[in-house]
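This part of the workshop introduces the protein records we will be handling. An example says more than a description, so a record of this kind follows.
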Amino acid sequence: MVEHEVGRDSQNSHFDIIIVGGGIAGSSLAIVLARNGLAIGVLERDPQPVDRVRGEFMAPWGVIELKKLGLLDLLTGAGGVFSRRNVPYDENMPGEQALANALTFCNLIPEVEGALCMGHPAMCRGLAAEAERLGVTFVRDIEDVEVKAGARASVAFSHDAIRSEWQSRLVGGADGRNSVVRRQLAMNVLADPPHNLLGGMLVDGVPEWPQEMQVIGTEGRIHFLVFPQGDDRVRLYLCYDFADKALYSGANRKSNLIGAFARLRCLPQASMIAASRAIGPFNSFSNEDRWVEDPTATGVVLIGDAAGHNDPITGQGLSIALRDVRLVSEIIVAGGYDRLSFRPYVAERLERMRRLRITARLSAKLRAEFGEEARKRRAIVLRRIFVDRMPAPSAATLIGPDRVPSVNFEQATIDALLAP
């Protein structure tokens, strides 16, 4: 272990690993490495965790990763709740018909209770607190980060008007979609074209919402999602066309979002949501995949959204990040610090993201294209998947892309599903 100069005010500290980004991915990596006796420094831009309206649903395969990392009890103890079944309320499958086709997660993936739902700020606070309890040096409200790759990597930053430089054997970039680390190292980002906007908001005043139930469906010109958040709170998400952007912008965007749910004819709980109250911001983001084919440099490895993210329409972000944490931490704990050591991680992530990208493209076509032709196509394809049992990539979003046969991701498979 590299000798660590203790103290947050030290201007020239030395660590085994410096992690840029103290969110869910960064804090999780810090915990796992600190438990293995490594000296870890974490640099975080935000003074406190903020509601970014994303990163609050963890698919069952991500919960398995969380369990393998030894972090599941920490988050459930901090307020995380399990969504145990998905009810596919939809204009093709309203009311009782949807209930008859509900999916119980433990029947599909019995290793865990279901999907984990938890507010992003609460998750960040819980993980950061555990990291600090383990002795991780955690500095918030930092600015002007400058990363230097190399066999002896370093990160310079400003905090409280003081310029400091930390040195380490490795820098972990966990600083999100707009990663400063990735940009400074000029890593090439590939992307699909944006196809929709996805916005969300936290509401309370929904005490009768079944907290073990999540809902995903499409009606009219919106694709909607509802995830429990504990007590009488739920998180509402709405995926809509760029042409409808004005409806969910400006001063009335929160009431318009609630109103869109209130008008859903296929959702029996629409009246519950109509009476809810916004308690968080409304933010929306464009839906597309972005990926980096090689998220490493000499002395640097990226994880989570910094290494590229999947189209959020399928909610895979947290699961992807936790798989990254597990694979990268296993390599580091085994003594791998050089770029060559991370080749297995790079290869696995590239294929994982490719499979999830194919899955998301199909999901976007089925869920977030609107109109009568799209409605008919959705009904045909879902019947082919769930009644005719044709091969499909869809299960990858629940059980993990590595558990789905490779043939399910082939273009011929997608073409057969979408054939007229």
Notes: Residues 1-9 have pLDDT under 50 and may be disordered. The CA atoms of residues 199 and 283 lie 5 Å apart. The first helix runs from residue 24 to 35. The chain has 14 helices and 22 strands.
